[in-house]
Please model this.
Amino acid sequence: MPDTQQPSRGDDAPEQPETAAQRRARRAQFLRDLMEARALRDRVQPRRARAARMRQQMRMRTFRW
Model:
């Protein structure tokens, strides 16, 4: 398992609170990586991906507003 501690950012300055723009950029990068990983999984395991799509469709069909 990977280490769960925060990785060092390489700067020796004390921890500064991140700005909203930095947070959005980091989140956008995370979401891009997540989509890439899902696409890779779908290519590698098409049967599992199809089953996941079917489950999602069933969830959406049975959702009540």
User: Anything to note?
Assistant: The chain has two helices and no strands.
